[in-house]
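Hi,

I'm pasting everything inline rather than attaching a file, because the server keeps stripping attachments. The sequence lines come first, and each chain or strand is labelled.
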Amino acid sequence: MTGKAQARAKTVEAKAIATEEIEASERAHLTTPTRLTGAEILWATLVGEGVQEVFGYPGGAILPVYDALRKFPIRHVLVRHEQGAAHMADGYARASGNVGVAMATSGPGATNLVTGIATAMLDSVPMVCITGNVSSKVLGTDAFQEIDITGITLPVTKHNFLVTKAEDVASALRQAFQIARSGRPGPVLVDITKDAQQATAEFNFEAAKPRSYRPHPMLRVEESGLAEAAELIRNAKRPVILAGHGVMESGAMEQVRTLAERAQIPVGLTLLGIGGFPATHPLCLGMMGMHGESWVNHAIQEADLLIACGMRFDDRVTGTLSSYATKAKKIHIEVDPAEINKNVKVDVALVGDLREVLEELLPRVSARDGSAWLKTIEASKGAVAVRDIKNLPDSGHLYAAHVMHDLWRLTGGNAIIVTDVGQHQMWEAQYFHHDLPRTLITSGGLGTMGFGLPAAIGAKFACPDKEVWLIAGDGGFQMTQSELATIVQEKIKINIAIINNGYLGMVRQWQEFFYERNYEATPLVSPDFVKLADAHGIPGRAVRKRSEVEAAVGEARSNPGPFLLNFMVEKEDAVYPMIPAGSALHEMIRRPERDPLEELAGDM
Amino acid sequence: MLHTFVSYVEDRPGVLTRVASLFRRLNINIISLTVGRSEREGLSRMTIVAEASSEAGHRIRASLFKLENVVDVDDIAQAPAVTRELALIKVAATPQNRAQIFDLVEVFRARIVDLTTESLMIEMTGVESKIEGLIEILREDESRILEICRSGKMTMRRGHHVSSVLKAMGKGAEEAAEEAEESVSESETA
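And the predicted assembly:
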């Protein structure tokens, strides 16, 4: 052991002892009512709610809270920008299934959280954001760094609170946790004025417990609905299960699998549904929608029954609604009554928690022979799979698809993959096969570029023993690349794969297809990412050929600390197939037989 | 079509914004909105009238229920209900034409609640069409109406309709949930 390591071990030990002591006194707070400051109540309540990490950034209006932090066994992760804090809390929540917590000061600190809150809202991720605000005496006077953050975040939170008294801190926070994780999960913001942080109040964790959660009064799973659903399943010739994010949120992986296996129904996945049903399962069709494979979308268009499980018929999944699955009856199992008949009119709505509904439905579903339909789908894969880029002979060119495929192969599919938004995200969804839930973390609804790096940090904190890979484009990575320093400061191990094509690739692809190749504002100059990593003390290397991928990935994985790989991929490759926005699900653009964009050595 | 929602909400700052914001988000114009205290302490009752497609009713109600401060929502739809509006109308009135206005007020079963040398104030309660009718007659003389203040619609279902959610609020949560469900089915079958 080096001197440094010994010193570190000693501090860790000392910290552990200190933590134990703190914990003992801390637990006392939870059982015996004590007089504390609002700031202390905040931390004590977080401890009581089981929070271990908070991602945040200090500032004037939240300083009393930061001052009290040292007394509590919570690890604070200092971010480089508050958007990063929100995405980290989000990534933490998606990877663990627990509530993620982000913290920021008033004014700009609070507004910087907004993109991250909206990201969590659109993807139903449980998160609690805590902001400081100016003293309640000057609220509404445009005091320094005062902003109406509860007003700003009203449409992008499930609920938010303005707390102006120390005695309300614990109950508001506890209610925030309950709201965030209950029903259809989502982000909740708690804005606490500085005087509420400084004042003292009686802290009683038990007494601050919110009244028990009231499920949405319009949840309804009726006997007749279940019977009708079972009847539709029994009589269907061409059924498809559509599995969404709700499968994981509800913990219904087993139930969906049982339904699929028992009734021999193939399963299509939404982007956020990936991992909810094993990709390598024979009944798994893969991702549906705009960049879904042709056989999935054709199966949906030809289906006579769709069983939608915890998904919301997003426009990226349905294409034009008027021509979506017109031959199919639809069963919608969904926890949010506001989603029923929102985009697609359904024949049977079972409104409730997916797992509970399936538990009730499964006893009514008996084994059926689905072989004819499965064979039809299998046959439709034929020609497409051959043209698949991963099967192309190695011509020396590096395609992003190669990187995804090889990463999947080399990690055994066991890593947690966090993506940014854009082409690489779709390639990941197509070529990395996820068998396990919560192994793909990606911004679906809001499509937030810059999500990847901070979300990967959050995921690593949630699952410190798992291998975490960030896959990001050169565009999105630059939006939040400052969080590289957070990785270093927190000494965490994340592998970073940048899919570098010198363009804002997905926008360029739209320009190529729909704007006559007018590449306005999409060519992108980037720093040398390997040098950038080096400036942070993070090793890295550039990869230019497919033959180099395996060794590079191996080097990154075996490196004890973080590692960055800059994959210089084909510049003008496109994500195929693609359904243009506003087209029907079967009207897709296919990868050309011989890619006219394929560069040859002489072109370089 | 015209939708009428009756909603019980917590009586605290910001709740009105949350309700109004929901309609704003759906790009639905609120035609009329009345809020006041209800029979339950700490809860306000709202009557919201909005123009939206016939299918929108379900989603609006479901979305209203998703707001943490909303305790109960009833979609009145075509159910038998009493709807009233209150109007205060100030009209210019001189000793010469006062008697004529008094007659009008009598016919419309309205009341005079303020009388000065130049003007008088009419208070009238009734359905929208009746109030519109009085205003129309008063407008026959162009310069006569000085101010109009209308409350917006207030609606209550006819017959026995206990808001069981509210009643249950003082009870155990499970009971509350059960009764909430009952109230939902009541309002849907009614």
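The longest strand of chain A covers residues 127-133.

If the labels don't parse on your end, tell me and I'll reformat.
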